[in-house]
């Protein structure tokens, strides 16, 4: 069974409409606000090595793109690629993760795979990830001001205490999971796929003059962070983890600032035939931490964070995905 969607459809809309037809993506990115075209063009993914993996592009069977044309075509042409007709695997692999270079994605068709618990299993679980919920702007401002003060005072102990509080709160609340849509009573959480695979209720923030907002909304004094993301092949991930452990043994407080942003996020990604997809099974790592609004102000334990960055690029030879722009000279290996 196929489902055809336009490129501007959001992940939330895709999940909800698919559910109405009894369909589901096996896995998906965890943020509702992504568009299907954006996910496809950049290789967005969830976390698993099961089956074909978690990248949306590996479930695409057909795609329609807008490409340059001549004057007779008003300088734009529409081309449709379909694995069930006359399109080659090579063409599809080139277009799937093209970053928009080979054309603008206007429509695609994805398919489903059925792998479910027994239909008689009881449960109506819901995943409403706590950091993706609408939050009082006053609280966001307080959290930001506290971290700015800790940074200015080099207060590593204060950051560690804040990180412990946040981590314990998230753990107790099961990170936003509930067994019935209201309360969390314990694991396992069983429910329909469309209610558990992704979240982002701050997209539904009230029109309340920013009394509440998404935590990263630039219109309020909320989160302002730096994020480094890279892929480490499964063959060397053990070495990476051991190196991190050695760094922490030398300076136990060094990554408390990372823990404030839910630690190092690790997502399994399967190798893909897409030309710009993963060349081998890997673990994608997202490291998120404080970013000063003064570009010349160093971060607390910046040396440790830089060491992790350089270690992965030069010692392990891994590929970097993207990095928020920051001022300063360009160093070898960083783009």
Give a description of the structure.
This protein is of the alpha+beta class. Helix content is 27%, strand content 19%. The protein contains eight helices and twelve strands. It has helices spanning 11-20, 36-42, 89-96, 137-152, 156-172, 237-250, 256-259, 302-315, and strands at 2-6, 60-68, 76-82, 104-111, 126-127, 135-136, 177-178, 212-213, 225-233, 265-269, 282-290, 319-323. The strands form four sheets. It has a four-stranded antiparallel β-sheet, with helices on one face. Strand 2 and strand 3 (76-82) form a beta hairpin. The longest helix has 17 residues, at 156-172. The chain is globular, with a radius of gyration of 22 Å. The two termini are 41 Å apart. Residues 101-106, 111-115 and 322-335 have low confidence and may be disordered.
Quick structural gist:
The protein is α+β, with helices and mostly antiparallel strands and 335 residues long. 27% of the residues lie in helices and 19% in strands.
Properties at a glance:
alpha+beta; four-stranded antiparallel beta sheet; 8 helices
Bin the helical content.
Answer: 25-40%
* Main pleated sheet: 4 strands, antiparallel
If you compute it from the alpha carbons, what radius of gyration comes out, rounded to the nearest whole angstrom?
22 Å
Topology as a string of helices (H) and strands (E): EHHEEHEEEHHEEEHHEEHE
**Ends: how far apart?**
41 Å
Shape summary: globular
Helix-strand category = alpha+beta
Helix count, per DSSP? Answer: 8
């Amino acid at each position: 069974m196929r489902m055809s969607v336009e490129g501007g459809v959001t992940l939330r809309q895709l999940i909800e409409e698919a559910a109405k037809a009894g369909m589901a993506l096996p896995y998906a990115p965890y943020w509702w606000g992504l568009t299907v075209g954006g996910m496809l063009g950049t290789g967005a993914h969830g976390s698993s090595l099961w089956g074909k993996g978690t990248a949306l592009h590996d479930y695409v069977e057909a795609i329609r793109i807008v490409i340059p044309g001549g004057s007779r075509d008003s300088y734009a042409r529409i081309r449709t690629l379909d694995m069930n007709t006359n399109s080659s695997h090579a063409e599809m692999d080139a277009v799937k993760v093209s970053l928009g270079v080979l054309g603008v994605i206007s429509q695609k068709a994805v398919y489903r795979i059925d792998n479910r618990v027994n239909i008689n299993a009881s449960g109506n679980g819901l995943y409403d990830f706590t950091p993706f919920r609408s939050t009082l702007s006053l609280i966001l401002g307080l959290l930001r001001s506290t971290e700015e003060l800790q940074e200015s005072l080099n207060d590593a102990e204060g950051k560690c205490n804040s990180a412990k509080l946040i981590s314990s709160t998230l753990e107790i609340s099961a990170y936003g999971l509930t067994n019935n849509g209201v309360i969390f009573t314990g694991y396992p959480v069983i429910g329909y796929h469309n209610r558990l695979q992704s979240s982002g209720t701050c997209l539904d923030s009230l029109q309340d003059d920013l009394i509440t907002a998404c935590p990263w909304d630039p219109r309020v004094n909320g989160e302002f962070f730096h994020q480094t993301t890279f892929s480490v092949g499964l063959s060397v991930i053990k070495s990476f983890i051991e190196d991190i452990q050695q760094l922490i043994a030398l300076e136990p407080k060094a990554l408390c600032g990372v823990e404030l942003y839910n630690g190092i996020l690790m997502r399994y990604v399967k190798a893909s035939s897409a030309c710009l997809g993963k060349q081998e099974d890997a673990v994608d790592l997202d490291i998120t931490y404080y970013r000063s609004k003064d570009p010349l102000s160093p971060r607390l334990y910046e040396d440790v964070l830089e060491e992790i960055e350089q270690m992965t690029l030069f010692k392990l030879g891994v590929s970097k995905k993207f990095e928020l722009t920051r001022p300063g000279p360009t160093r070898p290996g960083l783009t």
